[in-house]
Amino acid sequence: MQISALPRLVLAAIALVCGTVAAATSTDTAGIVPELKIGYTPNGLTAAQDSRPRDLWDRIRMGFRLSEVNPDLTRRHERWYAERSDHLLRAIDRSRPYLYHIVDEVEKRDMPMEVALLPLIESAFNPMAESPRQATGIWQFIPSTGRVFGLQQNAWYDGRRDVLAATRAALDYLQVLYRRFGSWELALAAYNCGEGCVARAIARNRAQGLSTAYAALPLPTETQHYVPKLLAVRNLVRDPLSTGISLQAVANEPYFVQVKISQPMLTRQAAKLADISMEEFLTLNPAFRRRVIHTDARGVLLPADKVEVFHHNLQKKETQRDGLQVYQGRKGEAVDGIVRRFGVSLEWLKEHNPLKLSRGKLTKDQVLYVPMPTMSTPARLVRSEPRSADVEGSGKHKGES
Description:
Elements: H1 6-18, E1 20-21, E2 38-42, H2 56-62, H3 71-83, H4 85-108, H5 118-122, H6 143-148, H7 163-181, H8 184-193, H9 195-207, H10 221-238, E3 256-261, E4 265-266, H11 267-274, H12 278-284, E5 292-293, E6 300-303, H13 307-314, E7 324-329, H14 335-342, H15 346-352, E8 357-358, E9 361-362, E10 366-371, E11 382-383
Parallel strand pairs: 7-11
Antiparallel strand pairs: 1-2, 2-3, 3-6, 4-5, 7-10, 8-9
Helix pairs in contact: 3-10, 4-7, 7-8, 8-9, 8-10, 11-12, 11-13
């Protein structure tokens, strides 16, 4: 991405002025599903944008403020990264779509800018990274801590992999830890090994009249290395030429725009409408566990220079052919009847829906996503009709101690 990529700023500004762009009205009493409509949400555009450095790395360097805590360990990790610069540069390259947003959020909260580099340590900025303890996403939340900080996890969507939601949750968590322990070094240690782990180490040293600073605590080996490793990356970013590492400039402007849609959509359709590859779409939207963007989703992220392309293509009537509609399945309904009704295979239905089956029948009332009818047929919320009396319907990480 070039530093002079002005069109992204222009598009984000247009998005801010326009607000929501609607292509249809709401659902009427006949149950007709409206045409797709989208709303733009620019991320991180501020009035002070022009006064900031043009290179995001310069802005990051200006926000560094943590002190060295264990110089010997820090130097060891500096050497490790310098000797494996390809590993570091691959992780930095993966960070490019996310980094502006993270930096903006860290800055808004007046947190040390070293925090913006934490996903480099946690996941190498790989949103699909998963640890043996089931931590996932660039911030590596385990399921329980993710739920505590509001990250929804279900068969359709995993908020721990959502770039916006997980960043908000990680920064919330770190601020909670900072308020408890009173130092960013201890907050970071607790993010790694858990609040109880750090609290016990502090209590142990305090009982013996010893220092309760991070470097003096009897913490697990991984946690003892955690902050020095982050500081080593910080030092390499601050002065990359000292180790022969070359950091390519990153534009200090929003990489993506959040687009909200009003109707379920296949991920491949969204990528096609935006004229981007599936790989790029999933890089920005790794939280979708299936190939469906459901209507409960907060929206999708698109490259800022592709939003107008997406909107233009969305207005074409032929895009409805690739759309999805909601089908209300009933407990006891045979799945083979559903696949025949909508002209799909059982494999397709399983791939796009978290089916709960017993002997080929739905085990509960379940909302399913199925292909949209042809353009000549109005899109509706389709409900199954009970065919016998026995078809029932009931209505509609981190942080472990």
